[in-house]
Design a protein that fits this description.
mainly alpha; 5 helices; globular
Length: 101
């Protein structure tokens, strides 16, 4: 249990570092938010990042939700324009059944 907690703390610290850097580097961009090595690093954490993304989604809509589309390709699909808040709510519902337990 202690090893798992340490791993979660290390993963959480890495996630927070990458998220902060991504936000800082893309805050004023209108496009290209996802063409960033920090966003790629979050995606490359794969399922290790999901609990932390879930916590961010619970705070409110965030472009970070698109990392889930890359971690779980094809799990959620939409046609046409869909508001960010709707996409975030769909993912919150899905993740609440696994991560949020």
């Amino acid at each position: 249990m202690e090893t798992r907690q340490l791993s979660l703390n290390e993963s959480g610290a890495r996630f927070e570092e990458k998220l902060s850097a991504w936000n800082r580097e893309t805050a004023y961009l209108s496009v290209g938010n996802f063409n960033n090595p920090n966003f790629d690093d979050i995606v490359n954490m794969k399922e290790e990042a999901v609990p932390f993304i879930y916590e961010e989604l619970k705070k409110g809509p965030t472009l970070l939700v698109h990392a889930l589309d890359k971690i779980y390709p094809g799990k959620v699909t939409f046609e046409g324009y869909v508001p960010l808040s709707t996409i975030c709510n769909v993912w919150l519902n899905i993740l609440s059944k696994t991560v949020g337990q």
